[in-house]
Structures are given as structure tokens and as C-alpha cells.
From TrEMBL:
Belongs to the protoporphyrinogen/coproporphyrinogen oxidase family. Coproporphyrinogen III oxidase subfamily. It comes from the Bacteria. Its cofactor is FAD. InterPro entries: Amino_oxidase, FAD/NAD-bd_sf, Protoporphyrinogen_oxidase, Zeta_carotene_desat/Oxidored. It is an enzyme of class 1 (oxidoreductase). This is Coproporphyrinogen III oxidase. Residues 473-511 are annotated as: Disordered. Residues 473-482 have a biased composition (Basic and acidic residues). It is found in: Cytoplasm. Gene3D superfamilies: FAD/NAD(P)-binding domain, protoporphyrinogen ix oxidase, domain 3, Protoporphyrinogen oxidase, mitochondrial, domain 2. Residues 20-468 form the Amine oxidase domain. Keywords: Cytoplasm, FAD, Flavoprotein, Heme biosynthesis, Oxidoreductase. It comes from Actinomadura miaoliensis.
Amino acid sequence: MTEREANGGRPHAVVIGGGIAGLTAARQLLRGGARVTVLEGSPDIGGKLRVSEVGGIPVDEGAEAMLARRPEGLELVRDLGRAGDLVHPGTTSSAIFSHGALRPLPSGQVMGVPSDLAALARAQVLSPMGLARVPLDLVLPATPRGASDVSVADYVGARLGREVVDRLVEPLLGGVYAGRVEELSFEATMASVAVASRSHRSLISAVRGIRQAAPGNPGPVFATLAGGLGSLPHLVADAITAGGGTVRTGAMVRGLRRTPTGWRLTVGPARSPEYLDADAVVVAVPAAPAARLLADEVPAASRELARIDYASMAIVTLVYPVSAFPRLPRVSGYLVPAVEGREVKAVTFSSVKWPHLRESAPDLIAVRCSIGRYGEEHTLQRSDDDLRAAAVTELAVTCGLDELPIACRVTRWGGGLPQYNVGHADVVARIRAAVAGQPGLAVAGAAYDGLGIPACIATARAAATRVLEHLDSRGELSHGSDGEGEQAQGAGPEPGDPLHDVVGIPGEDPR
């Protein structure tokens, strides 16, 4: 009896990578009629979604929120039967440390591009000279762009001046990509603004159009789970195993080869490899390992994946007694422009932002400090004590804290954030075109259409749909997809996908 016969004739789909994209793809494949195995090389699933206690408070180590205005994340939670665990921020108001002081994030902006010049002036984020430069955008001739991509710094700077780039756009995008605005793609990182700018000569007018078209009451910007967003991957994994799928950790895939009937994977150490056969494969790992896996069978995709660079960062989580704060913060957090020359690039007052954390520990305040930008890896080549000292110093200066934290956790995310540099959309299109030539193969994850959780889920749905269609075309499925993935066909970047979940500060001013 063959392995397939022993499993009721069901085709075998293997998902490489146990992050939220890989797990979501696996769950959809299982529900679509395939036999599913998830292979995760590290000791635990979840990728950059992880939660642990600091000072007795469960605080996420990576992404701490997902966008509630994109449906995919909330749909997944509800489909898992955990809608009752969803919680929303108590406040999303935020600040920017600019010209030596904390100042409110100007209302009316979208990803740092202003629409309300009076609100911009009141915020005092810009110098008088920088502020005077902004309205020239309304009278300047159109900035040539053609069909090619440009950097954020080049386009936004040409329209609004360099100070808007440095003190508004850069810190907002820095919270997502930890990248450099001179290299980040305008089309890929500011999609809604880029689209609107093609029908408006003025960038301010383009953003005004975006805001006017927005729904009057769009609801909460962010959501998380009461137990931390890091609990989501385990909920999905539990659903996979309950449905008969297999989730393996410590199972590093080192080789991927096509066979006459599908694919063969080499798993584990070279001295004692395991070989696993599959009818279809979803590669849901970061760009560099994906490039290595595809090098032999899909070299064109491998070359393009190798072009996607990554930034490293660290999140220092501190827990203070409430008494350490001369006055409690009223904002969810603040961003720090790179031009300020400070080590910490963003701060989130987690116990202020998330009321359920404050209710669980009313005498404590948890704070997350983000350190690290692309090209500044030396900043992270220091001890945990040094990073802790940098975060403590930051809060002493900005919040007047004169007590030490009672607990600290340093989480390092080496090569954690893909860089969507100029031409990123074309790179992704070439990857997908090359993969499309290989039946039964798909890719998913944060390297393609967005770093946020909903965007990753969308890529997973599209990948699973592609695989299920392939298996169904061979007559190998007893039934087709349950429909969950149909809406994700042709998944791409969501226009207006604001700030991502690592920092959790909105890139669009909520209406």
C-alpha cells in the first residue's frame, strides 16, 4: 500500500515555515481536502509573533497589534472561534519627539503627508522654515515620475520639502520597515498615497482626497488578543492538528527538488537527512532561506528573492511601578526621527494603549522601546544591559522617570524586517512569474505585499488557493477549497495599509 493510499488517497501538501503566513496557508489547504504537514526549522512556531511575561504581565515580543481596518486578521480570529478574545486600544493618539520635545502627531496626515496645514502648524513638529516650505506643494508644477518607481525621500521631498520627510514620513515608515527613506519604495510603502498622487498634481491635495473618501466611522484602527498577539499562531496550529494536520518544529528544510509526481524535501541535518515527498509545497519563510530553497529548481525566483534585504531591530520591554511616572502618559506612544540622533526610534506605552493590560496589573506600566535601523546593525552589537540602559535613559529624558524598572526583557530580531526598496513591486512580480511556471508551488509571507499580519494572511490565502487549484486540476482532491481563499486571489498590497504592528502607532490619523 502506498503512502497516499494509506491516507485515503489525499494529496500531501507541505508548508515550509511556521509563521502566521505558513500556518494560515496550512489550515486552508487542510480544509480544502489536502493532507498537510508544516515544517518549522526553529524550536517554536509563530515567527515574529511571540508573547511572554515581563514583571508578571504578558507582553508581546514582536508584533503587538494588527490592523482592524483590513479584514483578514479579524476574519481569522473569528473563524477560529476566538472573537471574544479580541481587544482594541484605549487610545491611538501618539506623538513625535522633534526639535527636543514630544509633540503631537499632526491630525489629518496620512503616512506623514499632511492634509491640514493649520494642524501641522499647531503640532510644531517642523521648524518655521520647514513649515513655510510645505504649502509650495499646492503651486509647484507636477513632479515627473513616469511609470517607474521612486524613493520616498525623492518624491515626498520634491513636493513638501526635506523636513516633512525627516520629521514625519521617516519616523512613521521607520516603525514599519526600520528602513531608509532614500531607499524605500514610494509605490510599495505608501501605496494609497502613491496611487492618489498619480491623479493629483499636489501631494497635499492627493491626501485630502484620500481622507474625504474614507468612511466617516471606520471603527478601531488596531486590534490584538487578550492573551497577546503571540498567542494567535498557537491557536491556528491547534486548529490544524485538530483537523488532522501535522505541525513539526525543529524540522529545518535544507533542500527542495522537483520529482516526476511532485516535490521532495530534504529535512534535518546533513549527517542524517530525512526525505519527505509532497504533491505541492508552499514556501513561507523569509527571502534569504526561500532563495536558497528555490535556487536549483526556480533560479529566476531565487535571484530576485536574494535582492530583498532585511533590517535588524531589538525591542526592549520595561515594567515600571506606576509611581515612577510623574504623570501617566496620555498617548499610546511616540516616534523618534532619525535626524534626532537618538538610539531609541519608537516607544509604546503598552499599559496605556491596551486597557486590559492595565486592568490586569493596575500598579504597573509596561513600556516597549524599539531600537535599530537598517544599516545601523552596530547599534545592536551590544549587550542586553547596554540596550536596557539606552531604553531607561530615553524614558528618563522624555518622561521624567527617576526610578529603575522592576523588570526588563530584551528581544532581538536579527534580519527581521524586509526592506521594500525602490522597484520592490517589480521584484515581487518577477518572483511570482517564475514560481507560476512550477505547478504545485507557491510562496507566502512578509517579503511580498506587506509586513502587517492581515497582509501576510492574504498572501497565505492566495498561495493556498493556487495549490488547491493545482491539486484539483489533477483530480486529486475529494472536494475543492472551502472558499476561504477565493477572495485572496491576486493578493497584493492593500492601499492605505497604515503603520504596521511592531510599533502600533497609526500611519493614518483616525477619523
